[in-house]
Amino acid sequence: MLIADACERWFPDAFVFALAAVLFVFVAGLALGEKPLRLVAEFGGGFWTLVPFTMQMALVIIGGFVVASSPPLERLIRGLARLPNTPRGAVAFVAFFAMAASLLSWGLSLIFTGLLVREVTRRIEGIDYRAIGAAAYLGLGSVWALGLSSSAALLQATPSTIPPALLPVTGVIPLSKTIFLWQSLVVAAVLVAVSVAVAYFSCPDPARARTAASMGVRFEAKGIEIAEARTPAEKLERSPVLGVVIALLMLAFLLLQLFEKGFVAALDLNNFNFAFLALGLLLHRRPASFLQAVARAVPATAGVLIQFPFYGGIFGIIANTAIQPAMAGLFVAITTRGTFPLVVALYSAVLGIFVPSGGGKWIIEAPYVMAAANTWQVHLGWTVQIYNAAEALPNLINPFWMLPLMGILNVRARDLAGFSILQLIFHVPIVFLLCWLCAQTLPYSPPVIP
Fold first, then answer.
1. Is 410 exposed, middle or buried (CB count within 10 Å of its CB: 0-12, 13-18, 19+)?
2. Which pLDDT score is estimated for 13?
3. What mean pLDDT, rounded, does the chain reach?
4. Other Cβ atoms closer than 10 A to 82
5. What is the Cα–Cα distance from 273 to 33, expressed in whole angstroms?
6. N or C, fewer C-beta in 10 Å, the chain?
7. According to the 3-state scheme, what is the secondary structure of the chain?
């Protein structure tokens, strides 16, 4: 709790760290002999390079929220909430579903599991609200980046989102060489098992539990409500015909993509978001309901929309100045081929405290980390997965991505931090050991540039 309280007191908003990072790399460029005007030009030139990626990340959040808040999913949540019967069983159950949902979409996981917690705590008395709230956040703090919505893996698999200056360093890396590696699946399975066990055994018994009621948490109905149509325009907005037809059209396109490219090749950021929007339309059916869900999701995208252009500016400075070769040289100088996975994992975890964004931070790291991986001839796809596994660790103490969940559960970050930090203590040695061991099993191949 002391660590969580200190973070809450001394850590400013993530946007402040983004601005500080711009200044830091600018000063680093000056120290390496770059001219100020060139640094200014590279910052401005890189500022808008991530616009497509920024929109894609915002749509991951919106798509997850729209699907999770749809009437069929709400009914599913109510059904799932009836399965656990004890407080400890409920906490373990929520932990498992948080991680399972995050392997599909981290945006879906936050909303889906938050709503599940509300239903479970209504049914079962004596649940420690802090423990079950922290369990709901485990998807973002453990395995999300090893799943289908991994920002780094999807970016590397989507040629149109890879910045031109990065493409020669990394090439295009299909998902078969990142999240679908058997090594990656093993890491995810181990983390899920350990996390569920820790959540189960760390849950206080009912006599010592701080329940939602004892914390003063009260839930109000926040479901989507559509008023009765009175005009022809309103009848059209509330008719399921258009929504369902367009959703089926979108799903037909996705089927064509699967037949033409195969599942792995077709699964890029664009098709991932396309699928969630189609599913959202189909589940909500009525355009008015769908748009209301989108409107409720948009505030959660604010951090992504404003911070990612600054990450693009940082990337421009790093990738096109003396910083990239200097950092790549430093990574080579302080590592061997054997220790490289451990250093990347440590660096990614520490940097994640200050830049809490899987996609934005990868843009900052990738130029020099992947250049060093090429030098040491470490499997490029596994280097991405080392980053992914370690990137989730700081989420357990950094409250940035807790914000949507905290809004649903009516809690503060410090309420969840004690249980999250306990998970972190178990995760760190497991992630580092597995990242290192698995790196020994994979051969190197040079970047594939289309």
1. middle
2. 62
3. 86
4. 11
5. 42
6. C
7. CHHHHHHHHHCCCHHHHHHHHHHHHHHHHHHCCCCHHHHHHHHHHHHCCCHHHHHHHHHHHHHHHHHHCCHHHHHHHHHHCCCCCCHHHHHHHHHHHHHHHHHHCHHHHHHHHHHHHHHHHHHCCCCCHHHHHHHHCHHHHCCHHHCCCCHHHHHHHCHHHCCCCCHHHHCCCCHHHCCCCHHHHHHHHHHHHHHHHHHHHHCCCCCCCCCCCCCCCCCCCCCCCCCCCCCHHHHHHHCHHHHHHHHHHHHHHHHHHHHHHCHHHHCCHHHHHHHHHHHHHHHHCCHHHHHHHHHHHHHHHHHHHHHHHHHHHHHHHHHCCCHHHHHHHHHHHCCCCCCHHHHHHHHHHHHHHHCCCHHHHHHHHHHHHHHHHHHHCCCHHHHHHHHHHHHCHHHHCCHHHHHHHHHHHCCCHHHHHHHHHHHHHHHHHHHHHHHHHHHCCCCCCCCCCC
State both tokens at 371.
């250049």
Residues in the chain: 450
Tokens of 423: 């998970």
Select from 99, 81, 79 the least CA-distant residue to 89.
81
344-373 pLDDT per residue, tens:
999 989 887 766 677 778 888 888 899 999
